[in-house]
């Protein structure tokens, strides 16, 4: 970056040491642009504006501002920096070749950085969903099996203590998963293998009235639908234990509606439902809805998702 800056003539010896100092202030703070993006942008912008006003401006003079803008998430600060650069080049280059060009290039640099930050946030969100879809579901099955063994198994007192330790570790793991998801949300690529998830849950004691058969859907909607089915199946088993019967109804049309019902043996534990809350957010972003709650002695969860531009094909296969 420094080589390009000086090779373009942004600073030459005849400009003097004051201009050299401004050039250093333009370049050196960029080393900390990722750690302190706002402060670096403000400092680099002031130095760049002074340098542009000091001598006949060259476009390469405000390249450091572009780099700082790329790393800065604050929209207001970025706009101020772009306007400051545009004002500094106006006396020498005029409104079009100077101000408009500089502001436009600054806006493009900030937008490219914003797109990069959005992509990174999406990657973190997908990682969070993938973590929930795999580790949390598998841990829930292990806990159900261990709780069943403790309730009906012919165990010694030492064996029960070992199981209690296992159950405590499993519940702690689920708590850690939720905390990790919260951290990632504040800041994979595919939905879980639905057939594999349902087979594993059946082995653990879930009874399915029907296997859900989804219509042809756009890939993002299908992945969301499969994640919804996996989540409600895991929750039914985790909250009600082996032998719980889950009914899944699929209705396809202009909108895809998936409704899950199971007998409510006990009220959901406080703090449960992270997966459903996350699915509700995803569904809302896709133009859909997710609702859940007790109804007539059953726990009912329903998802409505857009199914436009798809060929509807409804049905279910006996379990």
What do you see in this structure?
This protein has two domains: 2-118, no CATH class; 194-319, 2-Layer Sandwich (Heat Shock Protein 90), CATH 3.30.565.10. 61% of the residues lie in helices and 13% in strands. It has ten helices and seven strands. The strands form two sheets. It has a five-stranded mixed beta sheet. A two-stranded antiparallel ribbon has the order 2-7. Helix 3 runs antiparallel to helix 4 (63-70), helix 5 (75-93) packs antiparallel against helix 6 and helix 6 runs parallel beside helix 8 (194-204). Residues 309-319 have low confidence and may be disordered.
Biggest β-sheet description: 5 strands, mixed
What is Rg? 29 Å
- Looking at the structure, what is the overall shape? elongated
Strand content: 5-15%
End-to-end gap: 64 Å
CATH class of the largest domain: Alpha Beta
What structural class do the secondary elements suggest?
alpha+beta
So, the CATH homologous superfamily of the largest domain? Histidine kinase-like ATPase, C-terminal domain
Give the tally of structural domains: 2
**Helix and strand succession?**
HHHHHHHHEEHEEHEEE
Q: What share of the residues lie within helices?
A: 55-70%
Q: In the CATH classification, which architecture of the largest domain applies?
A: 2-Layer Sandwich
Q: Strand tally, please?
A: 7
Uncertain regions: pLDDT < 50 for 5+ in a row?
309-319
Mean pLDDT: 77
Count of helical stretches = 10
What fold name goes in the CATH topology slot of the largest domain?
Answer: Heat Shock Protein 90
Q: For the largest sheet, list the strands in their spatial order.
A: 1-3-4-6-5
């Amino acid at each position: 970056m420094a080589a390009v800056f000086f090779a373009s003539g942004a600073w030459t010896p005849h400009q003097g040491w004051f201009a050299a100092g401004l050039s250093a202030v333009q370049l050196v703070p960029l080393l900390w642009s990722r750690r302190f993006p706002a402060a670096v942008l403000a400092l680099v912008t002031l130095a760049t504006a002074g340098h542009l006003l000091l001598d006949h401006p060259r476009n390469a003079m405000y390249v450091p501002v572009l780099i700082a803008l790329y790393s800065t998430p604050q929209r207001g600060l970025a706009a101020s920096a772009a306007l400051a650069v545009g004002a500094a080049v106006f006396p020498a280059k005029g409104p079009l070749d100077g101000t408009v060009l500089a502001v436009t290039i600054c806006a493009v640099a900030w937008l490219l950085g914003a797109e990069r930050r959005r992509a990174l946030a999406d990657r973190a969100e997908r990682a969070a969903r993938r973590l929930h879809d795999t580790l949390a579901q598998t841990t829930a099955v292990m806990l159900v099996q261990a709780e069943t063994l403790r309730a009906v198994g012919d165990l010694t007192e030492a064996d029960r203590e070992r199981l209690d330790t296992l159950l405590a570790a499993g519940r702690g793991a689920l708590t850690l998963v939720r905390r990790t998801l919260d951290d990632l949300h504040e800041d994979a690529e595919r939905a879980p293998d639905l057939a594999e998830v349902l087979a594993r849950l059946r082995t653990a004691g879930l009874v399915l009235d029907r296997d859900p058969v989804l219509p042809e859907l756009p890939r993002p909607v299908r992945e969301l639908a499969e994640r919804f089915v996996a989540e409600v199946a895991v929750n039914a088993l985790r909250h009600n234990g082996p032998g719980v019967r889950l009914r899944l109804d699929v209705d396809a049309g202009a909108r895809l509606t998936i409704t899950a019902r199971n007998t409510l043996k006990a009220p959901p534990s406080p703090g449960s439902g992270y997966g459903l809350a996350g699915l509700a957010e995803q569904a809302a972003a896709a133009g859909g809805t997710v609702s859940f709650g007790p109804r007539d002695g059953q726990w009912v969860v329903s998802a409505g998702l857009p199914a436009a531009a798809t060929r509807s094909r409804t049905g279910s296969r006996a379990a």
